[in-house]
Write a structure and sequence with these properties.
The chain is α+β, with helices and mostly antiparallel strands. It is built from 5 helices and 4 strands. It is globular, with a radius of gyration of 17 Å.
Length: about 150
Amino acid sequence: MKKTADLRKMKEEYPFTPHYMYAGKYRMHYVDEGTGPVIIMLHACPMWSFFFRNLIKEFSQKFRVIAPDAIGYASLASIKDTVKALNVDGVTPSEATVKDGSYVIQRPFVLVTKTDAPLSTAAQAFFDYATSTAANDLIKAAGAVPVAK
């Protein structure tokens, strides 16, 4: 019975129609909501488009919002007994080797904006939070590597 309640709650929080594309033999989920100029939301790992659910709901009222989910990319935070990361060129993944760039398999957190256009209030709030000390503290608490200063 609890599973049914959880699924209903999930649908309320994440009401988007699922879309899929194939990258070779791998199926990838993505959200595609709204119409107008396109905003592409790229999440960090180990997250998925659910992370952007509230922004997707707001931005899709005026924009087409596309939020792809990654295929098989593991975050440093998810490396445990059951998930192993590979050494690359003899370098073991760690916070230090990610920060200094010697572990080359990594994805930086990138925010892209137009230099000649001000951000909307919601976008500016997201940008400010995403680059804040509070966000870095949450990222570090989750076991991931915080944004370099």
